[in-house]
Design a protein that fits this description.
7 helices; nitrogen fixation; disordered C terminus; PAS
Length: about 350
Amino acid sequence: MSPPAFDPALDPLVTPVLRADRHGRVAWCNQAFARWLGVSQKRLPDQPLVALEAEGDSLRNALHQLDDAEGPRRLRRVALAFLGGEPRFADVWLTREADGGLLLEAHPVDEFPGEDPTRALPLALSAALKGLAHELRNPLAGLKGAAQLLSRRGVDADARELVDLIGAEVQRLTQLVDQLLSPAPPHPHQPLNIHGVLEQVVRLAEQEAGWAVRLARDYDPSLPPLLGDPDRLVQAVWNLVRNAIQAGAANVSLRTRAEFGVRIGEQVHPLALRMEIVDDGRGVPEALAEQIFLPLVSGRADGSGLGLAMAQQVAREHRGSLAYRSRPGHTVFTLLLPLSPDGGDGDSDPASEGAVQ
């Protein structure tokens, strides 16, 4: 006997609930589960339950070990996704029912009550950053002057490219320092080629890591222009790539794709950019898995713990999201940003939404 295809008592619940038959195939899910996973209720039935696990084997192992007489079993931070979609993380409760079927109850880890601490830097940290910014002004001015002197000398083409890179980075850091000392409204977003942003990050990575890291490009050339702030996006992606390098990665891949009908937060966008930074480094320490985007949280003793917090903030400034999945030897940070097929600004000016300086 299989679980019922529809349960009117569970469908109105706000908690995501799913039922599977004795063979481990999805029989039914309530509206909350389908909405949370970003898929239609009609598409989930007959899918193998274990196929929904986006990373790891905790769900598969639990299904093999779950005894009929055993009470509900809790699995912490399970990554679930439908056919390669964006993973959703939840604490999962599994119960074996009398008919041999399974009841899965998901408690999304980002829906627990309480304020999201990643949405604002503490006041003490803000004050410390302003102090640091003040101290950085003189060294940056010295670097800018040195780069200008070098550019006036007779240097070859390769050296001139490096001098130009130094000048561009000094200018970007100077603007960041100015923003920390005198917060101003964010720059209006402008149409840009995201691959130009990635190429600047590649140049930075090549100068920092040299031949120690292999950088691979996997770009979708059909992507329309993205409305954004190029400097902020360079900073965000560079933070992700530099984290991979510092985690001992030998290979880092930058991948872009267009995705249709993507849910970001509570809004579904007809077209979005999916950018993935994939590396084969040590991965995110398990102890930091739920805190990795918090300011001052770092897996390295000499780390500032600001890189990922800033990258997530930049994603929010562009109405997007930043997520990750990780195991030793394979870490993927995924940046989702809404696109307009014609390069227009969509519903509103992204620069006016959620920017925190």
